[in-house]
Amino acid sequence: MTTPASALLADLNSRSREVFRRVVESYLQTGDPVGSRTLQGSLSEQVSAATIRNVMQDLEAMGLLDHPHTSAGRRPTHVGLRLFVDALMEAGPVAATDRAAIEATLGPAADPSILLDRMGMALSQLTQGASLVLTPKQEAPIRHIEFVSLAPDRALVVLVFADGRVENRVFTPPPGQSASSMREAGNFINAHARGRTLAELAAHIQTQVTERRAEIDSLAAELVASGLALWQGGEASEPRLIVRGQANLLAEDAADLDRIRVLFDDLERKRDIAEFLSLAEEGDGVRIFIGAENKLFSLSGSSLVVSPYMNADRKIVGAVGVIGPTRLNYGRIVPLVDLTAQLVGRALSGRHE
């Protein structure tokens, strides 16, 4: 199947490809626009600076390069970076020192969030970007649920999980609830709850209530729906975003403080955390979002490299990522994010392959 990247690449001859690749690699390394004389000695064939300038002008006309202000040098556009990442980038193996630094964080930790925090810190130090680690939702199966009436307009729902955790919350039940309807609601849920997580139970119960409404009291049905809706939106089951290394972004892009402030505001508010995981879930392995492609942080013009991680059942439960300027060292960071996601999944599920 022809992709936008392959179509663009097909329009480039071997000289144009080499000039383009050299411009991008130099820009990613230095952050500076690249001039024709800089490239002249690095190309595989000896050509004049004027010839290189003509090639760069053609690449600019294609939207792959641009030149800032009055500079004679060129730098890749976001379209150009996308072409490079999709078609020309060579991602090598993770360096031994990088692997050792990530694996050193795998020491014993009573709380998984401590392990994830250590990994996020190591990832931000290695990449000199900001690391993002989305922790898993609490996925333990439910052992028992109970509704307790506190007053005509107040009730308590109690959840006991298979891992021994007990959580409860006060809520406003539908009008007219009685002690018997609460018992019936609890019995109905418990008959279906064992072995299911809260999300799995909510989906199952919704179907059961629809199909078997005539078999249960209408008040109990309303209570089942309202109680589960309450818990589905509960903070205790929500994922948490761990952000480390924001200061690295200031060091890298101090000249563009307004853009970095926008990014900091997004990170501090943890905006659309669920969207962060969905970005990782939409494709296999590591995904790269450059500039405006990144729906979460598009206003900041940053790049995001993100990969999901899985639990012991091979289910995606969280994500690991690095955010930084568009001139990230993609060839190094992509395999590093991939490795970190794999190690997180193994650590949290007790696998040691």
Would you write up a description of this structure?
The protein has 353 residues and is α+β, with helices and mostly antiparallel strands. The protein folds into three domains: 4-88, Winged helix-like DNA-binding domain superfamily/Winged helix DNA-binding domain (Arc Repressor Mutant, subunit A, Orthogonal Bundle); 96-136 and 239-349, Beta-Lactamase; 142-237, Enolase-like, domain 1 (2-Layer Sandwich), CATH 3.30.390. The protein has 14 helices and ten strands. The mean pLDDT is 79. InterPro entries: GAF-like_dom_sf, HrcA, HrcA_C, WH-like_DNA-bd_sf, WH_DNA-bd_sf, WHTH_transcript_rep_HrcA_IDD. This is Heat-inducible transcription repressor HrcA. Residues 115-334 form the Heat-inducible transcription repressor HrcA C-terminal domain. One of its GO terms (biological process) is negative regulation of DNA-templated transcription.
- What is the CATH topology descriptor of the largest domain? Beta-Lactamase
What portion of residues is helical? Answer: 40-55%
User: How many structurally independent domains?
Assistant: 3
Structural class per helix/strand content? alpha+beta
Taking the sheet with the most strands, its summary is:
5 strands, antiparallel
CATH class assignment of the largest domain: Alpha Beta
Say which CATH homologous superfamily of the largest domain is assigned: GAF domain
Instruction: Report strand %.
Output: 15-25%
Distance between the termini: 35 Å
Protein name: Heat-inducible transcription repressor HrcA
InterPro entries: GAF-like_dom_sf, HrcA, HrcA_C, WH-like_DNA-bd_sf, WH_DNA-bd_sf, WHTH_transcript_rep_HrcA_IDD
Organism: Paracoccus suum
Keywords: Repressor, Stress response, Transcription, Transcription regulation
